[in-house]
Amino acid sequence: MRFRFLPIGIFLLLLPLPANASIFGVLNGLRLKGGVAWNDLESSLRYDKNNIDGTKIDLDTDLDMENNDLVPFFEILIGRKYKFLFGYMEANYKGKTTRYQPLVYDGLTLVSTTPKEVISRLQLRTMDFAFYYSIGRPTARVQMMGIIGGLYFRHKNRIFTSEAGSSNSEEAFIPYVGMELEFYLLRYLSISGRIRGLQYSWKISDVDELNYFEGEIGIGLHLGRAIGFYVQYRYRQLDLDKSSSSQRSEFASRLNGAVFSLILHF
């Protein structure tokens, strides 16, 4: 009895698949992907300036910054055998709280001993550039692509009280390597996944240390060869330390949550 589903499983694996139904898009070489990501933000930052040590700030517990926003994004993938990707995402967060502990940010003492209302803003912006290349297709049901690319990352922070405040922005180009694959369970149902990242701890330009990892996995429903709906879970980790002659910054973030997207092939 325990083998009664084996013939069914073998039959499903042998079902022919539409050659052009894929997350990678091979109709006329153009794939458009757009959707929203449910971003649960865990982040901290610190700014030292002119030999004045800043407070390490947890954006949730210290600034009561809102998260769990639905953030729109889009990707464009062009090419057939070799593919080029461009993606963009922008997220905005805000917080408002009464601070009782000392708060030093960007060389300024925003809160000392007297409690003050602190208002904060954070903008995260990413632009993704990547080159995709085939690394094998063991069966008709599996497609695998290697990824070499870079992520332009920019975060802009503003923290202020009724008496003082400061605004800063930091940016970095983050190289990465990775892999993306898709496996078809049925003719129009697939599992897809992507991982990418890079880590180093030597100084490049003004970046002292970088730790970047991103992974996502989910299922796709394909309506013919040109339309696909995907539900995925994504986790992104980024730790970025930068320094110059008069300033040092530390930024750490964890974004995770569900991703809902629509893919169109042309």
- Arrangement of strands in the largest sheet: 1-3-4-7-8-9-10-11-12-13
Specify the biggest β-sheet: 10 strands, antiparallel, barrel
- Report the average pLDDT across residues: 84
CATH superfamily: OMPT-like
Which shape, going by the Cα principal axes? elongated
Helix content: under 10%
Notes on the structure:
The chain has a 10-stranded antiparallel β-barrel with strand order 1-3-4-7-8-9-10-11-12-13. Strands 5-6 form a two-stranded antiparallel ribbon. The chain has 1 helix and 13 strands, in the order αβββββββββββββ. It has 266 residues and is mainly beta. The longest helix has 9 residues. The mean pLDDT is 84. The chain is elongated and about 65 Å long. Helix content is 3%, strand content 69%.
In short:
By secondary structure, the chain is mainly beta. The protein has one helix and 13 strands, in the order αβββββββββββββ.
List keywords for this structure.
ten-stranded antiparallel β-barrel; 13 strands; Lipocalin; 1 helix
Summarize the topology:
Blueprint lengths: L5 H9 L15 E20 L7 E2 L10 E11 L3 E17 L3 E3 L2 E4 L4 E21 L5 E19 L4 E22 L2 E12 L6 E17 L3 E17 L3 E19 L1
Antiparallel strand pairs: 1-2, 1-3, 1-13, 3-4, 4-7, 5-6, 7-8, 8-9, 9-10, 10-11, 11-12, 12-13
